[in-house]
Amino acid sequence: MPDFLTRRHGTWQFVRRVPIEFAKLDRRGVIKHSTRIKIADDRAGRRAVRVAQQLNEQLEIFWKGLANGHRTEQLHGYESARQRTRLLGFEYIEHDELLRRPPEARLQRLEALVAKGVADDSATRAALFGAEKKPAFMLSDLFTEYEAMTKDEVRDLSPDQLRIWRNGRSRAVERFVKIAKDKPINEIIEEDGINYCEWWRGRIIAEEAEPKTANKDIGQLSRMLKEVSVRRRLNLPDIFKGLRLKGEIERPRVPYETEFVQKRLLAKGALDGLNEDARLVLYVVADTGLRPSEVVNLQEDAIILKGPIPHVKILPEGRRLKTADSQREIPLVGAALAAMKKRPQGFPRYRDKSSNLSATLNKYLQENGLRPTKEHTVYSLRHSFKDRLIAAEAPDSLIDSLMGHKTYKPKYGKGPSLELKLKYLQRIAFKAPAAL
User: Fold this and answer.
1) pLDDT at residue 15 above 60?
2) What residues contact 177, with CB distance under 8 A and at least 6 apart?
């Protein structure tokens, strides 16, 4: 059964126990709300799940507000008003927003007050007509609010992908608070956005940062502010509009020369100082063009070593692929085939730890003179792979299919077959190191 849903008297009900970390702040013990959706009308609970997600999101925002020191009575006042409104069969809408809606919306609420016999109840009347303002949260809580609102959007991320997703956004909020100062979110102004972009501009001039880094940070903040503004009906100003920094340059990765890979990287003893898993991953990347993260996250059932064409399948198993086109099948040849035969179950040591792997490999290559320039990294092997395919006169469609690139082109047919992919990979395959 979906999280926090239970059946009660023929209706789906949201039930959640107050988490231990908030138990001292919210002493209700168990929270119960009817979704007002009959089980007979929604047997699989799909509609009820969406309602439960909204209720859960509101609860988590409420609890985190308590934990961050917001006035308990203010939070409880809003929560109480929202619950009273729901009991009468309406969604809670603040008064200003309700006035912007057609008169019929207000008339329906008035009729409900009379029909339910609660027209003289001032608290219910105030709740139904949106007298209680949503409690404001502080700018420093922006990421906490945003994360609670977007759990559905990151549900397919692996733990490490989620860590990266969280870290970048939470750091952006921390930096912004240092410049704009902490204050209620509805008090931010356009000058705050200008000041923040000027701070980044100063760092770029001082060569402490790149425009690309600054724009990524600003973009994340902008998206978070827009999301909470829409979800919470805050009508926040678009403080970063038109403030994207100029001078952003996309630096292409420098590929390794084919001869360097064969005679240096794949030479006998060249990688003996690496742990075996890291060494084998490098061999696989060299002869498949796979992203290192794709190699280390291969599951056993995606490694096909028996049959006429040994190959691996890149699938969204427990993690999100970079693009939809990243899902593909790659034949194993040369050094990659020899390496995968040693790891038919994959690389659990580095599974969901591709950052650790890349750091290990790049450090070793640097310390052992195997990076001709500082721009050469283990990822450069992927670009070498593409250059070798181009030199072998492989069709563009086949190259895109092997690389897992997003092409923005209409898809017709099944695409290049394993047999065709194998034909070209055999032409460019490296000779596996003798130790393999």
Assistant:
1) yes
2) 139, 140
